[in-house]
Write a structure and sequence with these properties.
By secondary structure, the chain is α+β, with helices and mostly antiparallel strands. Helices cover 25% and strands 14% of the residues. It is built from eleven helices and 13 strands. The strands form four sheets. A six-stranded antiparallel β-sheet has the order 2-1-13-12-11-10, with helices on both faces. Strands 5-9-6 form a three-stranded antiparallel β-sheet. It has a two-stranded antiparallel ribbon with strand order 3-4. A hairpin with a 2-residue loop joins strand 11 and strand 12. Keywords: Signal. It comes from Erythrobacter litoralis.
């Protein structure tokens, strides 16, 4: 019988002193990549696993709330900000984004088809990553989106088949900036992070020096440093910058190119704080979005996505996994419960925020130094080490007396 998260005990310390949290010995930690799992329900948050080194040169052991680049889970955070601005009447998710950008955005060959935030957040706007999706400071978002390689050629936005595209995120973030007049990093702070009392940021732009000092460095499976190692952190430049451009956001105009904040994957947050976002979502959106907005978000991921092997259920910045009746490579928990959330994969990291709105329970986790996807993993789009970590955490929870409901 599959395992299911049940009532969780709140630990008295969620930082370096993690009573009951499984940690490697000092000798093992010096050799092991960082891995963290944090469980949550509607009332409590409990670190389950925190082991390995956050940064190899110093040998600093990882703690449960050390901030890490969560890759594409950032898209879920972006979607929550968009829903909140829609509730405030600042944006209309179904309006032509050209109305906010101040210039006409159209897919080549489809001059009469508007592009909307709903389409982009759901990866149905016809955008493609073939032409690249990183637009550094000093380059033009508008020019990138004029490239035919950035679009599906055979159908207009809204009718184009689902295609997971990172390029949509800089566009969404730029629209939110243009509509609100606020920089994307400030928007996330106001609309998401501050509401929950957590310290997180994008590309380190609004994190304190103390928080940055706790950064989890990302390493590839070869051992090569990939991101957020010493020398890749502030005061060194931590945003994408075009050759010859200054690493200076003082003159940045909101709405022109929010790609500099890496909205597709650049959120830095600890797993305890990420669990707080999950906790708000299993609590009906409390503190973040209305119950109505949350229901629309989760409902958008329930219809099946035709032709997809992994993203079989995907809507407004959220994915549904292990949905009955679908043949899909998304088996992670294996306990029969449908969960919502988002995966993350980049720079040797695998991560996830997954929650069951019925039971009100979920996990936030990451692991590092994972080999790149080969396409031959067979039974799941999740890495086998990722699955093993989640299953291990579930067993530990059961051993602590967390019985199925």
């Amino acid at each position: 019988m599959g395992l299911r998260l049940a009532s969780l005990g709140l630990l008295t310390a969620l930082g370096l002193a993690l009573s009951g949290t499984v940690k490697a010995s000092a000798g093992d930690a010096a050799r092991e990549p960082a891995r963290v799992v944090v469980a949550f329900d509607r009332e409590r948050i409990e670190p389950v696993i925190a082991e390995g080194v956050a940064e190899r040169a110093s040998g600093r052991e990882v703690a449960a709330n050390d901030p890490v680049r969560i890759a594409s889970i950032s898209k879920l955070v972006m979607a929550l900000a968009a829903l909140r601005l829609a509730e405030e009447g600042v944006v209309d998710l179904d309006a032509d984004v050209s109305d906010y950008l101040g210039w006409k955005l159209r897919a080549p060959g489809f001059p009469d088809a508007p592009v909307t935030l709903t389409q982009i957040l759901s990866h149905r706007a016809g955008l493609r990553d073939a032409g690249g999706y990183i637009i550094p400071l000093g380059e033009s978002l508008r020019e990138k989106l004029a490239d035919p390689a950035s679009w599906h050629a055979d159908a207009p936005p809204g009718e184009a088949p689902f295609a997971y595209a990172n390029l949509g995120s800089p566009l969404v973030a730029s629209v939110l900036e243009a509509a609100s007049g606020e920089r994307y990093d400030a928007l996330l702070e106001r609309l998401v992070f501050a509401r929950l009392g957590i310290e997180a940021c994008v590309n380190w732009t609004r994190c304190s020096p103390e928080r940055i000092a706790r950064a989890v460095a990302l390493y590839r499976d070869t051992g090569e440093p990939a991101r957020d190692f010493p020398g890749d952190l502030p005061p060194d430049c931590a945003i994408p910058v075009a050759e010859g451009a200054a690493c200076d956001l003082s003159d940045y105009v909101p709405g022109t190119n929010a790609s500099v904040f890496s909205p597709q994957g650049g959120v830095r947050i600890g797993m305890v704080d990420l669990a707080r976002i999950g906790q708000a979502l299993v609590g009906g959106g409390k503190g973040l979005v209305s119950a109505q907005s949350l229901a629309a978000m989760l409902g958008s991921a329930r219809p099946g996505v035709e032709g997809q092997a992994f993203f079989c259920g995907y809507g407004l910045g959220v994915q549904a996994i292990e949905t009955p009746g679908r043949t899909c490579l998304d088996d992670l928990f294996g306990d029969g419960a449908v969960r919502f959330g988002h995966p993350g994969e980049a720079y040797g990291l695998r991560a996830g925020l997954w929650f069951d709105p019925e039971s009100g329970r979920g996990l936030a986790y990451f692991l590092t130094a994972i080999p790149p996807r080969t396409g031959a993993e067979g039974t799941s789009g999740f890495d086998r080490r990722e699955i093993a970590l989640v299953q291990r955490a579930m067993r530990l929870l059961e051993e602590r007396g967390r019985r199925p409901r």
